[in-house]
Amino acid sequence: TQLLEQSPQFLSIQEGENLTVYCNSSSVFSSLQWYRQEPGEGPVLLVTVVTGGEVKKLKRLTFQFGDARKDSSLHITAAQPGDTGLYLCAGDHTGGFKTIFGAGTRLFVKA
Amino acid sequence: GAGVSQSPSNKVTEKGKDVELRCDPISGHTALYWYRQSLGQGLEFLIYFQGNSAPDKSGLPSDRFSAERTGGSVSTLTIQRTQQEDSAVYLCASSPDRGLNYEQYFGPGTRLTVT
Fold this sequence. Notes:
The complex is a heterodimer.
Chain A: E1 5-7, E2 10-14, E3 19-24, E4 31-37, E5 44-49, E6 55-58, E7 61-65, E8 71-76, E9 85-92, E10 100-101, E11 105-110
Parallel strand pairs in A: 2-11
Antiparallel strand pairs in A: 1-3, 3-8, 4-5, 4-9, 6-7, 7-8, 9-10, 9-11
Chain B: E1 5-7, E2 10-13, E3 19-24, E4 31-37, E5 44-50, E6 65-69, E7 75-79, E8 88-95, E9 105-106, E10 110-114
Parallel strand pairs in B: 2-10
Antiparallel strand pairs in B: 1-3, 3-7, 4-5, 4-8, 6-7, 8-9, 8-10
């Protein structure tokens, strides 16, 4: 069974703090995506990483794909209440049809 | 441009009734996915359509679940004889191509409540 494990499951922090969310698997992925989902809405794509060791930045968000393409991390600097939401990682295998989603990390940033 | 739309946004039904959920993907997107999301959980894959190929139904939880995609565009997910454990948000997503572009664009979901 191909699984993506996300940690932590839940995170509540104060505005201005930094945080890191992890996505781990025993499988190698050809690409990995991070999504953010707000209540009552569908997930929205934040970034796709495809190369081992790749680092991508999106404003205060930094995404890293592990060298072996089995894991990824999302680091948020100076978190803001607008960052509150469910962060999902999702992985694809070369030639596969089914994207595997992690269970998500629910982030709450208090003002 | 228009995103993925789903209808209805909310559906309350009695146990044992059939329901149909609709998804309108982004125009031109060849791939279409259905997922189920229970409260506070991640996404559970249900079914995948790609162009005119046979769909990947490996995620459907039982034979009460079925889906169609007519004309390579609109899709309908049907749940027969609904059970309380079917209560969840059903999300539809579309994608331009399976190539190297795996990004999925999600609709807002249909919240199904079975009483």
